[in-house]
Amino acid sequence: MGSALKTPSSVWRNPIHFLAFGFGSGALPKAPGTFGSLAAIIPLMYLQQLSLMNYAILTLLAFIFGIFLCGKTAEDIGVHDHGGIVWDEFVGLWITMFAAPAGWHWIIIGFVLFRIFDIAKPAPIGWLDKRVEGGLGIMLDDVLAGVYGLLCLQLLAYFVA
Fold first, then answer.
1. What is the dihedral of CA 74, 120, 88, 53, to 10 degrees?
2. How far apart are CA 32 and CA 89, in angstroms?
3. For 19, 32, 124, 159, which has the most beta carbons within 10 A of its beta carbon?
4. Calpha distance 46→48 (Å, rounded)
């Protein structure tokens, strides 16, 4: 995951690469995963207006699409998990925020929880990150970080809200 890698110019020409790079948010030279997660808040605002079933379906479809999107982009640019590929961060944050209570403070808490788990990669996230290749490998560690964030956020909401 080289976040210090140069952003390929194809990100601005190829719609698949543009999406994989989180609408360009992953092209920033520092902390692309964090900026990708921040950019994911914009569509999150729309997802949160949906029923839980529709939110879940769209997130699942974004995950399935992400396997192709991230895998194809990684193959095209010749870097397995370029740090700028942040579609996985979008989906991971959306998983964390599933059924979250309303309010900006919950979005901030969910964002922080997701980033902690995505960066720290506690077991089995780190193990899977090193062993699963392709688009699935790119997506899977962020999905699990999202699940960890979801569990923590829901527990926090249960005891605090």
1. 160
2. 10
3. 32
4. 5
Q: How far is CA 128 from the centre of its chain?
A: 16
pTM: 0.95
Instruction: Give 67-80 pLDDT, tens digit per residue.
Output: 999 999 999 999 98
Task: Show me where the domains of the chain are located.
Answer: 9-160
Tokens of 59: 């997130």
Neighbours of 75 (CB within 10 A): 12
Which residues neighbour 26 within 8 Å (Cβ) at sequence distance 6 or greater? Answer: 7, 11, 20, 32, 33, 35, 36, 83, 84, 85, 86, 89
Query: What's the pLDDT band for 4 if we cut at 50, 70, 90?
Result: low
Residue 48 three-state SS: coil
How would DSSP label each residue in 70-92? HHHHHHHHT-TT-TT--HHHHHH
Residues with Cβ < 8 Å from 124, sequence gap 6 or more? 144
Distance (Å) of CA 44 to CA 13, 72, 74, 114, 159: 25, 24, 25, 14, 24
pLDDT reading at 3 higher than 80 = no
Q: Look at residues 158, 161, 139 and name the one whose alpha carbon lies nearest to residue 80.
A: 139
